[in-house]
Amino acid sequence: RVWFNPNLRSQPSMIPGLMAVVLILPAMSVALGITREKETGTFETLVTTPIVGREYLLGKLVVYLSLGLIGTLLALAVATFWFRVPFRGSLPLYLLFTSIYLFALMGFCLLVAHIAGNQRSATSIILLALFIPSFFLTGLTFPVDESSRASWLVGQALPATHFIVISRGITLKALGMSYLWPEVLTLLGMGIAATILSVLVFQKRLQ
To answer: Cα–Cα distances in Å, from 137 out to 44, 130, 160?
Structure first.
């Protein structure tokens, strides 16, 4: 008897994993919002205000993180009531871990926003670095290839790899922190490192 999916339906496995890919889009909005301000000239006007770099970036994170969590609730509702995917775990715990995942994604997107000069460049970088690899190297459609050291390292460097484990674990198996803490700490470390680097870079331009 197959555990957690006795009817061998594809939806219970694929849809919780797809949550990791879908949530890249609200994170990408951070980079698009900042680059749009560069293009329209409103970004330069911030230099003349008392705002500092960390305040600007944290403000962006709070807004888009909140929107991302709202999108998560809507996506879970569609998965549960439309696609009949069982949700066996804790919803508050899922939202907590999702916020950490969004934090890691948005930290990377903040760096992209500093590198890219316009929205088109930011979109291309995020699609190539996060979105497309998340379909093939993260364990979404097939297990992570451990025979190739290079592909395994790239997969481990992608936040989606760790959130897929979290999403499927909570949704299908009702796992808790005692099982998922390695993935949670990895995402938290990615988010902290990327955000600190973003703040250091932006402070050179916003004082």
So the answer is: 38, 10, 9
Q: Is the pLDDT of residue 54 over 80?
A: no
Amino acid identity, residue 56?
Y
Distances (CA, A) of 162 to 13, 21, 27, 113, 117: 15, 12, 16, 24, 30
**91-115 and 159-173 helices, crossing angle to 10°:** 170
Helix (H) or strand (E) holding 140: none
pLDDT at 200 over 90: no
Query: CA nearest 33: which of 101, 114, 97?
Result: 114
Find the radius of gyration of the CA atoms of the chain. Answer: 18
121 CB contacts (<8 Å, ≥6 apart)?
35, 115
Pull the structure tokens for residue 148.
């190739």
Looking up tokens 């888009």, which residue turns up? 64
How far, in Å, CA of 190 to CA of 158, rounded?
9
Convert the pLDDT of each residue in 171-191 to its tens digit: 988 999 999 999 999 999 999
Model's pTM, two decimal places?
0.89
What is the residue type of 80?
Answer: T
